[in-house]
Amino acid sequence: MAEHVWEPGDRLPSRAQIGQEYGVGENVVRRAQELLISQGVLEGRAGSGTYVAEPRQRVRMVRSSARERPDGSPFRADMKALGRQGDWESRTDAKVPAPADIAARLGIAEGDLCVRTTYEFLADGRPMQLSTSWEPYDLTGGTLVVLPEGGPHAGAGVVNRMAAIGVTVSHAVEQPEPRQATAEEASLLGIQKSALVTHIRRTYYSDQGRPVETADIVVPAAHCEIVYEIPINR
After folding, report:
1. CA angle 148, 95, 103 (to 5 degrees)
2. What is the pLDDT of residue 71?
3. Cβ neighbours for 129, distance < 8 A, ≥ 6 positions apart
4. For position 69, what pLDDT does the model report?
5. What is the pTM of this model?
6. CB atoms within 10 A of CB 33
């Protein structure tokens, strides 16, 4: 039996081909690949196949109030510091009824309309972080900032966009929890379905105490480390 050597970036043959060559069932090949994906040896790419993973250093994600920037994205700044190109893709849906858990976080009634934006953050074109943001429509509806990624304040971030309509954001609360990736998250991030992720529930509050935005941020543990920077007021 010939011994194959696959280099980083190589696409593996189909499970059926591997199973036939080594005399095992496709389920055995699938479980072996899932194990190697969870260990970072292989990576799955949605609609493309399974590849030998390039060696990847864990990317540091800094969570800090000091990261709010008037002139750009903290994610892009983090990636630039690491010599990588940071970017994101987004999709916004206006007037989406708030599910019960989102309504509770925003202090509104279940079913009240929200603007929902989903993000896929990329480093050198590779998925690094997912986020789903919810904003109360009655706060931003009819203003120039109703679309987070559209209009004159596109991509300016929650703090700067809210300031443009006279709302001062005073603080944010973040609740990080470890869990396993869902099938959809795994497909988008190129990781195994059961791979460990950190799920951060973040909510921004105005100086009047009103929640103005809440988001679910999902970061793959194998690819990213999350660091919290705590400012000290003197």
Report:
1. 90
2. 59
3. 61, 75, 119, 120, 121, 217, 218, 219, 224
4. 62
5. 0.76
6. 18
| Residue 87: burial class (beta carbons within 10 Å; 0-12, 13-18, 19+) | middle
Which amino acid, one-letter code, is at 167?
A: V
Residue corresponding to tokens 């990588």: 84
Residue 8 confidence (pLDDT):
86
Helix, strand, coil percentages (3-state) for the chain, rounded to 5, are 25, 35, 40
Rounded CA-CA distance 139/92 in Å is 16
Rounded distance between C-alpha atoms, residue 85 and residue 100, angstroms: 37
Strands 42-45 and 126-136: unpaired
What Cα–Cα distance (Å) separates residue 57 from each residue in 166, 215, 224? Answer: 41, 26, 8
CB 121 within 8 A of CB 129: yes
Query: Could you give phi then psi for residue 191, rounded to 5 degrees?
Result: -125, 170
| Cα 51 from chain centre | 22
Mean pLDDT by 10 residues, the chain (234 residues): 76 90 90 80 81 78 72 71 83 97 98 97 88 97 94 90 96 95 91 88 97 97 88 83
- Strand 224-228 and strand 59-63: the pairing is parallel
pLDDT of residue 148: 93
